[in-house]
Amino acid sequence: MKKLLLLLCMFSTAVALAQYNPNAPWMKTLENKNNKPLKFEEIVDAFNTYWKDKDHTKKGSGYKPFKRWEAYWKHFVKEDGTLPTPQELYATLEQKRALEAKLVDQSNWQSLGPYAHTNTGSWSSGQGRVNVITVDPNNQNVIYVGAPAGGIWKSTDAGTTWTPLSDELLQIGVSAIAIDNRDSNVIYIGTGDDDGADSYSIGVLKSTDGGLTWNSTNLTFRDNSSFINEVYLDPTNQDKVFVSSNRGFYKSTDGGANFTVTLNQDLDDIKLKPGDSNVIYAATNTDVFVSIDNGDSFQLADTGLPSISSRLVLAVSADAPNNVYVLSAASDRSFQGIFKSINSGGSYSRLDDGSLDLFDGSTQAWYDLALEVSDVNSDQIYLGTVDVFRSIDGGVNFEKWNSWSNPSGSTYTHADIHMIREFNGNLFFGTDGGIYELPAGLASTVDLTEGLAIGQFYRISVSNQTSNNIMGGLQDNGGYAYSDNNWKNYYGADGMDTAIDPNDPNKYYGFVQNGGGLYFSNDAGVSLAGSINGPEQGNWITPLIMNKEGELYAGYTRLYKLESGQFQVVSQNLLDNIDGIAVDPIDSDNMYVFINRVLRKSVDRGATFTVAHTFNGNITSLAVSSTNNEVVYVTTTTNVYKSVNGGVDFEDITFNLPFDTKLVVKHQGLHPDNPIFVGTSLGVYRLDETQNTWETFANNLPNTAVRDIEINELDGNITIATYGRGVWRSDIPEVQAGVDMAMLSGGIGQSQTFVCGNVTPRVTLQNNGTATITDFIVRYDLNNASVVEQSWSGSLAPNENVDVVFPTITLDEIGQQTLSFSVEAVNDAFVVNNSRTANFFVNKSADLDVFDFESQDQEFVVQGGLWERGIPTGTLLNAASSGQNVYATNLSGNYSDQTRSYLVSRCYDLSAIENPVLKFDMAFDIELDWDFVNVEYTLDGGTTWQILGQFGDPSWYNSETLPGNNCRNCPGAQWTGADTTLKEYSYDLVSLTNETSFIFRFNFVSDQSVNNEGVVIDDVRIEGNSLSIDDFENQIAFVVYPNPSKDIFNIQWRNASTVKYSVYDITGKLVLKKDDLDLSDQETQIDLSSFTKGVYFLKIALDSKESNVKLLKR
């Protein structure tokens, strides 16, 4: 038996599995062309024709799996329009290995997973697709799974930990696994992605050492569209190997050394009769065949089955060995019925009565369809498409067993079920989100995906301030956010392009497919802060980018900019969807977009674009040098190019790069040799200006497709997003310049989002060079107005930091403000790290004012762009409490779908108000139990928010619905449904009477579909009695600052003869106490540095008076 690499040399006429699943309905129109390789555009055109008159937004329609395939394989198209063969792919691997042998590789890649995650906002939480699951017949703690582009993985502890077994091979998918029951080290795998065609097939491979190494078998394919869907071993003779493929039934009697085709049919499934392996059942799209001679011959046996169908899958049960079960999809891929034979396939009758759609509306049975009948109790039947349905009475009745959109459900699995299989009474599910187990005798599923780094990432972003903050878009598993060494899944669907604010490492942005919705988080993915709809339908991967000032741009047929929570048109119509965007890191006025082969450039921040260059192949990526913005790098599918005149002319710098597809290019700044890195279908390569030879950058990195690259010069590392093996990171070679002044941060010296009063601009600078810096100039401007500058002189040694603080300024106008900072030092080598931008909101203080919104000076701050002030003219919501104006989610119609928007109050000092009560008038018409509005409050300027009140409080919320099948975002305290008459709502704030910085906001949230008129708010006020000077004199005179704090809280007081305090934790336990403090300084400190983060309560006594204050330790 030859080794795998020798096997691949034989593929002189084979074509890669890049020709999509032939069971997809649009592929049927191309069947007559199978005598020659199909062109990529032929497949795409057939798909577009099929979908012209169909709703592709419906869950389970089958639209998304193809768009994923198209987005990946379009970069592999050759000059003749076809896709590469395994021989060509192997040739590029050999070129890569030749480079590895010649050059010193400076990389040290480590996997960042995701190996595990926390769901912080996704409605369909998952981690990566699993096609197939097999349990070792000799040890049920040993489990194998196959992924579509992540290869085969093994667990030896029942799914607690996992190990990859195929990283040394070409990147492969696995759709079938079989284990020899005589020797568990003997394993067979059917390669390729049978369902989604994310990877090509190289036939059946065999391992004899438990998966450590792999050898070829005799089964290889030499045509343009072969798939393997099942591999079984004869229980009575494990040298007999049975393989189901769309090219027929293959049988080997010598452990894979030789195979014979005994049934020339396009097979979707096979099963062996329990207890009698002479009987084998084989299913095509429309028929079932039976062999009674161990697979040597087959006879048609479809009596009682539908005459026309599009896919059939099979199940058998050791509990009823004569039974055969068939799940059928109709010609439109909808549910057609479940059928049962009690005579080993002699005839069938329908089990279900047809009253329940067991596909639940799905029409993508060609992609996900699974059936299993328990070996322990044949009355238990499970079937899956998008969700799982179950019968416990032999098929008389079925129920929907779980829901893909309810991740908190006890039987949750991710959507799209590719396999259901029982082993030893335990039921396993392979889904688009991972592997789930229903252990025998239990009623709840267990997610076993933790430890599997099989994520198929489209794009990734890394904060330029800290590489520990990452945002990525994951196929079918939404937006993945990384911070504090943990991954958070903060929104669902297909995560796409992403961005992190360069001036705030905690502000994350992420698209879903086609740019249909933008989801954002203000706390690095710990929670979903909101979302807005896209302005039109973009590409499957709609590009998203943020410039150094923090302005966010998106590419559709026009360039759009996010302003005030909405996308605003920037550019002219470019007549086709934009494929990619790049922004000059030095001068944000310079922007580039590309569509297919054409590169366009703008010098006016995207207002107008002109054609700069047209390439011979489609552009896949563009990067502008952060050292010299005249230098531009471009990758096409086959080449790498460099321009030294701002994108007008290009030279080919492909040099010795292998022929694998070039997917992304990135420039490493802050390095005198200007290195660039290119990600390809096989890995990463590096080139710098001192050489014309590319070197591999691949130590410890699997052979995997690299879809995106991010470089963090500050931390000296490179991070990549792979399509099948998750996220990886390596150090990069660094060279320090003589003079390099870097601005680490710029802002107002506090983390709060809302400022009520004065601000103090300040920056933190670092000497990143090798020489001591003795002077520099720091400048700032507010909202592009006049520049303020300050000179510094002294001695700043290498790697030392310094803070520069400007005089305090007073801001009177509410709304968003932007501070732009820059630093200038003589002979500074790099300017790209010399600036920062800080965005924040200025708010005003209020007392007992009534806000009726009749004049402009009564406006509130709006975040998310939905709320508007004016006269309401809706059908149901058309009244004001006083005057004419209100705030409404839409003054004249329905609110937008997929939105989270805030209406933010003024700032209140509740310590100056006796018995404060929040009151407002509201009417609402909201989609019941899907959309909602509630009130949140902050005591720290918007850094953290909490829900005000709870269901059951008087004159307050009408719903306590928690996240579930309906209201996925409901916190359990909200208004939902309809009450269209304006009425007063109120909440007693007496528990917050000591708070000096109280802000509240109306939080409105809508889901992906169905919208009503929304919410109207009027006459917002806090009622109570203003305390007089005498009242204040009678109160305890003290102040606590800062609050919140990471460690030290200062207490100042006046006119007290005795002072003592106690500190309690959230449970009421005394944790700290001080009596008889030194009164001479009228000040003391509380040190909570050794305590955990959270809320504490301070009880302070000055003379005979006591008061309580809440402390927030970060």
From TrEMBL:
Instruction: Give the Secretion system C-terminal sorting domain ranges.
Output: 1040-1110
Q: State the signal peptide span.
A: 1-18
Which UniProt keywords are present, listed alphabetically?
Signal
Per the record's keyword annotation, is Signal included, yes or no? yes
**Sorted alphabetically, which InterPro entries does this protein's record hold?**
Ig-like_fold (IPR013783), Secre_tail (IPR026444), WD40/YVTN_repeat-like_dom_sf (IPR015943), Xyloglucanase_GH74 (IPR052025)
GO biological processes: xyloglucan metabolic process
Q: Which CDD domains match?
A: Sialidase_non-viral
* UniProt superkingdom: Bacteria
| Entries under PANTHER family matching the protein | EXO-ALPHA-SIALIDASE, XYLOGLUCANASE (EUROFUNG)
Write down what this protein is called. Putative secreted protein (Por secretion system target)
Q: List the source organism.
A: Aquimarina brevivitae
Taxonomic lineage: Bacteria, Pseudomonadati, Bacteroidota, Flavobacteriia, Flavobacteriales
